[in-house]
Write a structure and sequence with these properties.
Blueprint (H helix, E strand, L loop, with lengths): L1 H18 L9 H12 L4 H34 L10
Helix pairs in contact: 2-3
């Protein structure tokens, strides 16, 4: 019975998270000022700084997804096979 409500709960959390989205700065004031000044002068270092921040942000999420996939596979492996009432 609990499994039935789990996808609905996650979808509700996802919808609330998307609807409450606010634009935020991902950099400290010094990094942001440095990136703005370098891009206005024609340098591409600010773009590299932003790419580096996004890379560092993505790694924990990728690790969490990997752990979730491994856990899901292990969980499904230990479950007994269910026989459909329509199979004979």
């Amino acid at each position: 019975m609990k499994i039935k409500w789990l996808p609905i709960f996650f979808m509700l959390v996802l919808v609330i998270g998307i609807s409450c989205y606010n634009e935020v700065s991902a950099q400290c004031a010094m990094c942001s000022l440095n990136a703005e000044n370098s891009t206005t002068n024609g340098n591409t270092q600010g773009k590299g700084l932003n790419d580096g921040i996004l890379f560092l942000l993505a790694i924990p999420y990728l690790i969490a997804v990997g752990v979730g996939v491994l856990w899901y596979k292990k969980y499904r492996k230990n479950q007994p096979k269910r026989v459909s009432p329509f199979e004979k």
